[in-house]
Amino acid sequence: MRVLISEFMDAAAVAELAREFDTEFAPELADRRSELLAKVREADALIVRNRTRVDREVLEAAPKLRVVGRLGVGLDNIDVPACGARGVKVIPATGANAAAVAEYVIGTAMALLRGAYSHGAAVAAGEWPRAALSGGCEIGGKVLGLLGFGNIGRLTAHLAAALGMRVLAHDPLLAADAALPQGAERVSLERLLAESDVLSLHVPLTAETRGLLDRERLRSMKRSAILIDTARGGIVDEAALAQMLKDGKLGGAALDVFAQEPLGPGSPWAALAGAHNVILTPHIAGVTVESNQRVSALVAHRVAEFLRAGTTPCRQ
């Protein structure tokens, strides 16, 4: 059986698959669509991250395909209904990168609240902006708002509570009687936006969440609030957010995901390059050495297990 890997994966997990299956590790395929379509024709399994589009075109080009492994948790780059109709199993790495994302949220929140860590060049040059940088804030006692309370949201709540934050959560998918750990309080979306000092997004990109944080909802946040998006681009109106940050109507933002990745010409973030209250990263919140090892090992194990079983492909 043949396994095709179209994006980066931990070497140990690739080697593990190669010991049992005909495995091709070609991380450049995410950017070479025609080559991907040609190579997937003989694949029984395809392993991707977030840049490889597994759509009807790929499925039609892959008559032998039985399983798609996702090195991550978001599935918006995979046509799950089409996979289900074809009997192709989709296996995400649920939970394996939660710690990395949760630490990113807390780390960027602390950096933005303190506001002192991007002035190293000035200090090295002999400047001493002590008075200007003495107005930073502590994270203890602040309110963390979590929009979405799945695995990553819960782990973020755990870390936040340990630092003395009060946690509010809004997730319409939670059952009405579901217990919220770490003393988190379930609130409406309106209250979440109004009371959060740090608002962190943990919802998938769906028809319901696309554009959820539009200009009006962003305006309902505290002027000093910090917004952190490690979920998916398209949930936040980026142009409105960038303008609010530029105008001083929001305290800060850390964005790891964008509606267009990489950012293209005319991006609203170009004007904020180097701003002390903005952190922009290239979709790496869930990627650390440790999380890559966990994610890769989990997906490799589950894909191998599925192929090994030799069962009829399951419908989603």
User: What is the H/E string?
Assistant: EHEHEHEHEHHEHEEHEHEHEEH
Strand order of the largest sheet: 8-7-6-9-10-11-12
Instruction: Indicate how many domains the architecture comprises.
Output: 2
Main sheet: strands, sense, barrel: 7 strands, parallel
Say how many strands there are: 12
The CATH topology annotation of the largest domain reads as: Rossmann fold
Q: Averaging pLDDT over every residue, what do you get?
A: 95
Low-pLDDT runs: 312-316
CATH class descriptor of the largest domain: Alpha Beta
Number of helices: 11
CATH superfamily annotation of the largest domain: NAD(P)-binding Rossmann-like Domain
Class derived from helix and strand content: alpha/beta
Give structural notes:
Helices cover 33% and strands 15% of the residues. By secondary structure, the chain is α/β, with parallel strands linked by helices. The protein has two domains: 2-96 and 290-309, NAD(P)-binding Rossmann-like Domain (Rossmann fold, 3-Layer(aba) Sandwich), CATH 3.40.50.720; 98-280, 3-Layer(aba) Sandwich (Rossmann fold), CATH 3.40.50. The strands form two sheets. It has a seven-stranded parallel β-sheet with strand order 8-7-6-9-10-11-12, sandwiched between helices. A five-stranded parallel β-sheet has the order 2-1-3-4-5, sandwiched between helices. Helix 1 packs parallel to helix 11 (289-309) and helix 5 (98-114) packs across helix 7. The longest helix has 21 residues, at 289-309. The relative contact order is 0.15. Residues 312-316 have low confidence and may be disordered.
